[in-house]
Amino acid sequence: MPFYQCIAPIGVITAEMKQEIVDEITRIHCEATGGLPLFVQVQFDEVNPENVFQNRKLSSAIRLHVRMRAGRPAEVRHQMMMDYTNLLSRVTAVPIVDIMIGIVETSYENVMESGQRLPPPGDEESWKAKFANM
Q1: CB of 2 within 8 A of CB of 40?
Q2: Banded pLDDT at 134 (limits 50, 70, 90)
């Protein structure tokens, strides 16, 4: 279920950077949550640089919007946000002050993946077993 939308001005993130970011987002997410890489989705949206502002000025700001299943401890979410912030800054050379990470949590009852409703927190193992051969 996790869906990551990375929004940046055109030209800030190259194709090579995108692959590294995707690989690292997937690794961080799976290590933090126990989720399967199969379901980690990352989308890059590049916008006209004339349309990105921060502090009333044009900016090379990057925004990473995360939608994931609710129920993880605040400490886990905080570490994920720190890891994503550091990743984006390291790979793109955009200063940390210009990177925003936002996590929106969704109840498991409101998400279906590959035709299967997500399990409640704590019931992941039997659900994950359905996808072991994918």
Answers
A1: yes
A2: low
Query: Among all chains, which residue has been given the structure tokens 């498991």?
Result: 108
The answer to whether residues 1 and 113 touch, using CB atoms and an 8 Å cutoff, is: yes
Is 21 within 8 Å of 29 (Cβ atoms)?
Answer: no
Beta strands in 10-123 (DSSP E): 41-47, 53-54, 57-58, 62-69, 99-106, 112-113, 116-117
The CATH number of residue 75's host domain is 3.30.429.10
Q: What is the pLDDT of residues 63-87, one digit of tens each?
A: 999 999 998 999 999 999 999 999 9
More confident call, 87 vs 126: 87
Residue 59 is part of which domain span?
3-129
Gap between the Cα atoms of 102 and 64, Å rounded: 6
